[in-house]
Amino acid sequence: MTATEHAIELTITAARAASEKKAGHILAFDVSDQLAITDAFVLASAPNERQVQSIVDEVELKLRDLGSKPLRREGHKEGRWVLLDYGEIVVHVQHEEERQFYALERLWRDCPSITLPADVVSEG
């Protein structure tokens, strides 16, 4: 099983939104073979809580423009690791310290990467 076209569209939109707010190390994985609850993960990071919040706000805005609202949102108040669950995709925006400590990309490295377009620029 692979991620649906709609999940890929949401993934690319979320990655672009993160890029617009200067997110670092933006990656996307197709986790549909490993998890029954979602198709894709988007990972992004920022050096401080304010930027984490800014990235999250932009992702929510751009996905809302596509008619998607998060089913669940966790960690927004603290701004260290915000999880946005859209059902088909889950967006993780982490402070750089949390990103290094939890290393989600190592946990999911066996899953295929989703190729992001060239206009998704990953800072840092």
Question: Keyphrases for this structure?
Answer:
124 residues; alpha+beta; 5-stranded mixed β-sheet; globular
Order of helices and strands: HEEHEEEHH
Would you give the CATH topology? Beta Polymerase, domain 2
Note the beta-strand portion.
15-25%
Strand tally: 5
> Which runs of at least 5 residues are low in confidence (pLDDT < 50)?
none
Largest sheet: 5 strands, mixed
CATH homologous superfamily assignment: Beta Polymerase, domain 2
Description:
- The protein is an alpha+beta fold.
- The chain has a single domain (5-107), classed as Beta Polymerase, domain 2 (2-Layer Sandwich), CATH 3.30.460.10.
- Helices cover 35% and strands 23% of the residues.
- The chain has 4 helices and 5 strands; from the N terminus they run αββαβββαα.
- Strands 1-2-5-4-3 form a 5-stranded mixed β-sheet.
- A hairpin with a 6-residue loop joins strand 3 and strand 4.
- Helix 1 (5-20) crosses helix 2.
